[in-house]
Write a structure and sequence with these properties.
The protein has about 190 residues and is of the alpha+beta class. About 10% of the residues lie in helices and about 30% in strands. The chain contains three helices and nine strands; from the N terminus they run αααβββββββββ. It has helices at about 5-10, 30-40, 45, and strands at about 60-65, 70-75, 90-100, 100-105, 110-115, 115-120, 125-130, 135-145, 165-170. β4 and β5 (about 110-115) form a beta hairpin. It is globular.
């Protein structure tokens, strides 16, 4: 049995960096978009100074775009809600940056605190609400970028209501839901 560590056997990691694949400039997988959302969440200097709260309408700001995706920053004062909707052909990652939001689907409610993430596929129906007494901030990545955000009747029977996979991960355009393509999406 060899008592040498794997590091000693493999050699100095700094000597083999040329063998490692570089991180892609733009994500191409769900996991990559989740990781991008987490890295943006951790980089508060990138987004915190942009946040504004508006009591009359939900505030939103397109943070950036990439090939086939867009990233939105949203703020929520207490009581603001998106309305029940889906995201058309887009998949997405919702990350709570500050505060607490409630995600409602036709099947259940989920309270999402700071750092919580939700991943959803096309056709997933939900509503996002700030049920708390404090403001909240969220980050939304849509891939491909949003082209439609159909509102769904309160009974949730339109579309593929809550049939698409949706996953919790530790640590919401064109409607009252999430931002949409520029210049002036309706919230």
């Amino acid at each position: 049995m060899n008592s040498d560590s794997d590091l000693q056997i493999a050699g100095d990691l700094l000597e083999v960096l040329h063998l490692l694949q570089p991180a892609p400039e733009h994500p191409s997988t769900v996991g990559g978009f989740v990781g991008l959302a987490r890295s943006i969440a951790a980089d508060t200097a990138r987004w915190r100074h942009l946040v504004r709260y508006d009591a009359t309408t939900r505030w939103y700001h397109r943070l950036s775009t990439g090939p086939g995706y867009e990233i939105w920053l949203l703020s929520w004062v207490p009581g603001q809600r998106s309305g029940l909707h889906d995201h058309g052909a887009s998949s997405g990652v919702l990350t709570v940056l500050e505060g607490q939001l409630t995600e409602r689907t036709p099947r259940r409610d989920r309270v999402l605190g700071t750092g919580a993430q939700r991943v959803f596929a096309p056709g997933y129906v939900h509503e996002v609400v700030n049920d708390s007494l404090e403001g909240a901030v969220s980050l939304h990545i849509y891939f491909p970028g949003l082209t439609e955000m159909p509102m769904v009747p309160a009974d949730g029977r339109a579309g593929a209501a809550d049939q698409a996979p949706h996953h919790d991960a530790a640590p919401a355009a064109r409607c009252a839901a999430h931002p949409g393509p520029e210049p002036a999406p309706v919230r």
